[in-house]
Known about the structure:
Distance between the termini: 51 Å
Number of helices: 10
Helix content: 55-70%
Strand order of the largest sheet: 1-2-3-8
Radius of gyration: 46 Å
Amino acid sequence: MKIKISILLYVLLGVWTTEAQQKKWTLQECVEYALENNITIKQSALSVETADIDKNDAFANFLPTVNASASNFWNTGLTTDFLTGTLKTQTSRNSNYSVSVGVNIFNGLKNIRQFQRAKMNQLLSQYNLGKSKDDIVLSVANSYLQILLNRESLKVIEKQHEITLENLKRTKDQVEAGVLPQGDLLEIEATSADEITRIVQAENAVKIARVALAQILLIKDYESFDIAEKDYLVPTSEILEKPVEQVIGKAREARYEVQIAEQNQLLAEKDLQLARSDYYPTLNGSFSYGTRESGAKVPVQVLDPDNPLRTMPVGVVPSTGEVVTTQKPNLLTQEQNPLPFFDQLSNNDGISYGLSLNVPIFNGFSVRNNVKRRKVAVKEAAFRLEQAKLDLDSNVYQAYLDARGTAEAYEASEVAVKAQERAYEYAKDRYDVGLTNAFDFSQSKFRLEDAQSKAVRAKFDYIFKLKVLELYFGVKVADIKL
């Protein structure tokens, strides 16, 4: 029974492993996996979390500070009595307790501006995260399409090689029959050898492209990683029918490059306001309550029961020289146990409260110089914003022209393939009846293969350029499909 269970588990594990190894990734799966696992995106997501924490810190600046303290310590040797202030050799225990509240009343509006800046920085971190996602989507799409391109190019060469092998067999039979010269056979054999070399190169190109995509996805199993096999049709898009000015305007609204530059300019302006806040005085309020207690014995004075009164001279009568005396209580100093803990806390407590005003008068021009630096930073941010707009306009315009150009190139390549197919069929018919030699036939076949390769390249180049244009136009990452 145990053996049967072990065999069943082994079979199920083998089936699961085979299915895992044979998984074919679609573009959508690659994009979703990259968005979840890419390190750059994870770092951008952490920046968003940090910005959220900074915003909470900025909000907390509006709240008062409340602190409590408690201390308990022992002194041994010649120490000052905590309650009487006298020096004596003793071991004493003393404790202090306090609660304090501090509140910022005015600091040049710095708290308000810091909170506003924190919200701006939070939005900026979200823009950076969005840009990271767009960048990784483009990178994944480009690598994915590169695999498709290399794979289709490989299929073109393999298909042509199959035709070459058929021609090689037929030519060999005709040479042996004396119908064709030996040179025709050698020409086709050379063509076959060249195609085998290019097949190996194309297979390596497919493997390299697969490894490149796997590295972007952080997948280490390069051997089993592969993409889905299906026919990828040339997509249709209405974007190319729109005026380029409309595409550029939409890109300015949707793209993160300009939004990031705009947010950086707002941050620079807010930093300038924060720097100017240091010109203003600051006003703080405070309140504290404290108390103390001691475990040391308390010295008290009591009447001497054996001699309750004592006589003391107070003066002398000048005429007689008689000493005038008086009687006072005869007090003895004794130590008693300290009052109960809570009675001491009640008797020794106290409060303090007040306002603190700090007026900046002269600080070595540090505030003024900091304001100047912030003004320069505002100008730099404005220049970067203007450059970001110019770059975006240029990139969108270039992407628009590239998409239109590749669309026209793809259409032209399809026409060229059809023309070369007819030319090849004509050359093949002539070769079959001996009206042309093997070299001319091989050249016709090569031109057909070259036209097919260019058509494949134009097809996937157009698909990628169209996807880039869609992103510029504001198509969401989740909607990028093939």
